[in-house]
Input
Amino acid sequence: MYNEVVAAPREILAKNVLVKSGVTDYSVNCYVGCMHGCVYCYARFMRRFTGHEEPWGRFLDVRINAPEVLAREVRSKKPGRVFVSSVCDGWQPIEKRYKLTRECVRTLIEAGFHAGILTKSKLVTRDFDILKGYDNCDVGFTLTTMDESLRFRIEPGASPTWERIAALEEACNRGIKAWAFLGPFMPGLSDTDESLDALISAISRLPLARIYADKLNPRPGVWNSIVPFIKRYRPELLDTYRRLFFDPEDYRAYCSDLGFRLRLTAEVHGVGEKLKVVF
Output
């Protein structure tokens, strides 16, 4: 799946970078598209705005003027909290070459905005030098499973989970406010009691500010990505996924049970007060 041919990155110019967000005050995305190729990604709805015919995960637009545009915008907009990034991963592999997200984060911090980072990439450790010593920034890592075989199948382009946890520990050791985002969990795969226990146990020793947890988001487009994956690896789960995507009552019951098990597991590992289930 991950070895399929992808389109060459396309360099584009952005008219604006600091945009209003439904999660925080603003969001910043230096890329359109994401090479992590996560099977559950809700952001694939962005494809219809890009003009690309390639599937989500097989194209990437690089907003090469993002730092310059942002530098102008922060002078005219009221400081607030900024989600970096909301519909892509700002530290996906190509960021190593372009360094766009790094420069945007630097601009946000120096202008008095709060940069809230969420990533699945150890590359963000490169930028800990510009985060250290500031209280208007934090870094979070998405963690879905401790099973590396499953992790590679559902997040083929992202850093292994153990590398993300090591990066979280490094952030804590450097005095950078750090947090974890658990999920989205895939029913029958990464949401078993054993899987939840392994994941929460692995981070329970870290001095994280907060632990968030989320379920699989049945947004339009996700179903079309999930179906071929389940048919290939776990065809016996297809009916389960169909019910959860299209039967609201089953979905609500599933979410309630998952939330209960997450809270129970967090309590067992002594981090119950840090966990916030966001569904």
